[in-house]
Amino acid sequence: MNSLSTARFLLCVLAASASSGLGNQRRVSAADGPPNVVVIITDDQGYGDLGFFGNRVLRTPALDRLAAASARLSSFYVSPVCAPTRASLMTGRYNYRTRAIDTYRGRALMDPTETTIAQRLRAAGYATGLFGKWHLGDTWPLRPHDRGFEMALAHRGGGIGQPSDPPGGEGAYTNPILFRNGTPERASGYCTDVFFREGIAWAERESQAGRPFFLYLAPNAPHGPYHDVPADLLEHYRSESIAPERFPRPIGHPSTGRFDAETLARTYAMIENIDQNVGRLTDWLARTGLDRSTLVLFLTDNGEATVGYNAGFRGRKTEVLEGGIRSMLLAHWPGRLEPGVASNLPVAHIDLAPTLLEACGVAPSVGVAADRVAEARFDGRSVWPLLTRQPVEWPDRTLFVQSHRGDQPDPRHHFAARSTRWKLVRNSGFGAPSAPADAPYELFDMQADPFETVNLAEREPAVVSNLLAQYDAWFAEVSQTRPDNWSPPRLVVGSPHENPVVLTRQDWRGADWRAGDQGHWLIDVKEGGRYTVTVRGAKGEGDRVLSWSVGGRTESRPLSAGETAVTWRDVELPPGPARLDAWIQEVDRKKGVLFVELTRQ
């Protein structure tokens, strides 16, 4: 696509802005056979973090060209944080059905009985590959290559620079330690460059072998930390002297929060690096002729994390206001999808899995175990008729979004209910496990007021009551998906599919990630027997004692100032569920460890 002439690019932009007149254009037949599918999902990139959507500071030429040449659904919704969005995208189901209700403390783990889009497409003959962020479980049977991806090159946890980083790879955006189908390896280059380079090479091999491919590209950028970004791009954005007045004054709301030019420069450097890689991908598709037989989707997992230009939408990441849950959705397939806004109807992440199946000609039952068909039903609806501008009846429905901290969802806390016309929202605080009693309900007419400027809750009490009743019925129904629906999956130890198993702070229970926090792990010892247990902590000063306990047994050994790990051999672990604790006792305090590694002998 980088080879598009200026004239052609301008024509694409004009076509995108005048999409209502495109319906009578002649369609070009698609190539025979099932299409390839590329899904690109970025991490913490907001709606306004794209030049095409009005950002005058950020350089995104490849994405701008892609947007101009793509069909777009202008009211596309995701969750306010990452793991819930990814669970819904993978399954076509509300994340509250999948156990993936938060981003850490074991609450990002997706239940292994859920059926993913990768499993369905793989059963239909597709090669399936994931490159980048998974964030739905790092141990068997929760890993991406356990969930339908033949090839997965991924980082652990919710991002590089988090406590799940392997030793020696802490915070390494450049030359990171990644996991290729579960095996760690040191990559060469910047993380986003690695994911696209490896993903394109894998897709090319599969295409040459005659297989359609499903390529899931999920860079961890522009998620923080922002310590390691492409230096040349950072220098450019530092020289730009970024300030709020550099951005257009939007209709709606200016971005709220503390504006930090340095952090924004680092964020934009990461986004421009993503754009360069999208250009490499689209160049490869065009050069090989695969663009005519490939559906490319581009979206982001939640709203902006760094205060900048938010295209007039209210709120940011973690909020259920539009700025936190509305994403761009670009759908590109030359000859099949006409550029421009294909529909303004509200659609969501739960719609992508059924949409991809229809686009690929795959029945929803493919890849689903015979005894799981009812449980694997989609909450979403295929939006392929909207993207292809088919005349189709589209009954009104209400979409629901809810995510907040805490061990289980709290009814009517931090949620949005969106019908074709109305949006009821209670933005009661992502960080709190329950809603303050005085947290207000707000109602907006999204057709007349897409930027949420006029609260109509008092004027339209019947609409509020109706949407609340729909929400209550939805919450009760998804809560009963399984008898213990709000319990997280246990971490399996002793399976022949993974040995050793590494437990990280990403999935521990009962604590955050601060240095002094102490959590525990809920495990399931699949096969009892003798194990080697290695416990790793941070460096400290003076002599300390490192301890761990499971099933009523406690082991302790001294840990000198220079030591970070202790290993126990021939430890007998009985089969079944258990709680595992591990801690370091210092002179005046007890704190949690970094990792526990269990190897069945």
Beta-strand content bin: 15-25%
Share of residues in helices: 10-25%
The total count of helices amounts to 11
Tell me the structural class: alpha+beta
The CATH class of the largest domain turns out to be Alpha Beta
Name given to the CATH homologous superfamily of the largest domain: Alkaline Phosphatase, subunit A
**The CATH topology of the largest domain is what?**
Alkaline Phosphatase, subunit A
Main sheet: strands, sense, barrel: 10 strands, mixed
Protein model, in words:
It is built from 11 helices and 27 strands. 21% of the residues lie in helices and 22% in strands. It folds into 3 domains: 38-387, 3-Layer(aba) Sandwich (Alkaline Phosphatase, subunit A); 399-479, Arylsulfatase, C-terminal domain (2-Layer Sandwich), CATH 3.30.1120.10; 491-600, Galactose-binding domain-like (Jelly Rolls). The protein starts with 5 loop residues before the first helix and ends with a strand.
Structural features:
disordered N terminus, 3 domains, Alkaline Phosphatase, subunit A, 6-stranded mixed sheet, Arylsulfatase, C-terminal domain, 10-stranded mixed sheet, Jelly Rolls, alpha+beta
Summarize the entry for a quick read.
This protein has helices spanning 6-17, 61-68, 82-91, 117-123, 191-208, 231-239, 261-288, 322-325, 352-360, 384-387, 461-479, and strands at residues 36-42, 71-73, 76-77, 127-132, 151-154, 177-180, 183-186, 213-218, 294-300, 326-327, 330-332, 340-343, 347-348, 399-402, 415-418, 422-426, 442-445, 491-493, 501-504, 520-525, 529-536, 544-550, 553-559, 565-573, 576-585, 590-592, 595-600.
